[in-house]
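Hi L.,

As promised, Transposons Tn1721 resolvase:
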Amino acid sequence: MRLHRIKYFRLSLQEPEDSVEKSTRHDVFDAVFFDETADDAANRAGLEKLIRYIQCGDTVVVDSMASLSSSTEQLCTLIRRLIEKQVTLEFLNENLIFRHDCLEVVEPIIAVMEALAEFERAAAREKQATGIAAAKIRGLYKGRKKKLSDNQVVSLIDRARAGESKSKLARDFDISRQTLYRYLRST
């Protein structure tokens, strides 16, 4: 069985003209897979084709971690997915190699990366909460806009007390039943 050397990149991170040729010029690859600039995390046909193509023992070469993923959490998931297929993953810019046959080295690295991803999420949530609190103090943050006006709420409550069906009220006011019950509890 012949082992393959495979290249993956995203066009958005390459020079626009002749980027496929420039990206593969200095090395010989058995296959090249790429995704377009507009492809997002949910729509990466090139990456999915690569994953279907690779076989045990192949080497996947990626210019940088950023071209494989835009988030640390997603990057860790993709690295694990590729390692599970028993391939070697090379990141050229970071000079990192993840080998499927060296899991005792790979697993701690991925664990640290996942811990950093969790730290990033927690820091972002804390920063957001701090910003919202500061905006509330300055009177700039009002929260989510109310779905119903005060007059609509009065009408809703009157119709509910008159015995109208909750489902019909929710449809008539274009709100969920949960929102309907929240308005009814507020009286």
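The chain has two domains: 5-116, 150-186.

Thanks again for sending the construct details.

K.
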